[in-house]
């Protein structure tokens, strides 16, 4: 299993202090002033969410590559596909 197992819950906010380069803060402030983001915190949250999505996508690809090398996984997948193909007939 991967490191990230559950979705971020909006009601489970945790205050966390980070140190960012001044240029990043300047860009986030400009984005806030131009209404691209509602706040610096919001911009940071969006970036973290994008990072987590990319990580999960990469993690999924690794798991699928590992599964492709697992003959029992391939056999189970093919058997399931075969079983469902029998049900895919219209009117059943």
Number of helices: 3
Could you tell me the mean pLDDT? 84
What is the CA–CA distance across the termini? Answer: 37 Å
Q: Tell me what portion of residues adopts beta-strand conformation.
A: under 5%
Radius of gyration: 22 Å
The assigned structural class equals: mainly alpha
Sum up the overall morphology in one term.
Answer: elongated
Notable traits:
mainly alpha
Describe what this molecule looks like in 3D.
The protein is an all-alpha fold and 92 residues long. The model is unreliable at 1-6 (pLDDT under 50). The chain has helices at 22-33, 40-68, 71-87. The protein has a domain at 26-86.
Brief overview, please?
63% of the residues lie in helices and 0% in strands.
Question: What's the layout of helices and strands?
Answer:
Elements: H1 22-33, H2 40-68, H3 71-87
């Amino acid at each position: 299993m991967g490191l990230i197992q559950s979705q971020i819950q909006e009601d489970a906010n945790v205050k966390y202090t980070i140190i960012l380069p001044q240029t990043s803060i300047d860009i986030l402030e400009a984005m806030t002033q131009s209404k691209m983001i509602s706040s610096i915190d919001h911009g940071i949250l969006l970036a973290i969410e994008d990072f987590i999505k990319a990580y999960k996508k990469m993690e999924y690809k690794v798991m699928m590559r590992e599964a492709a090398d697992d003959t029992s996984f391939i056999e189970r997948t093919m058997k399931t596909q075969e079983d469902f193909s029998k049900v895919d007939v219209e009117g059943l």
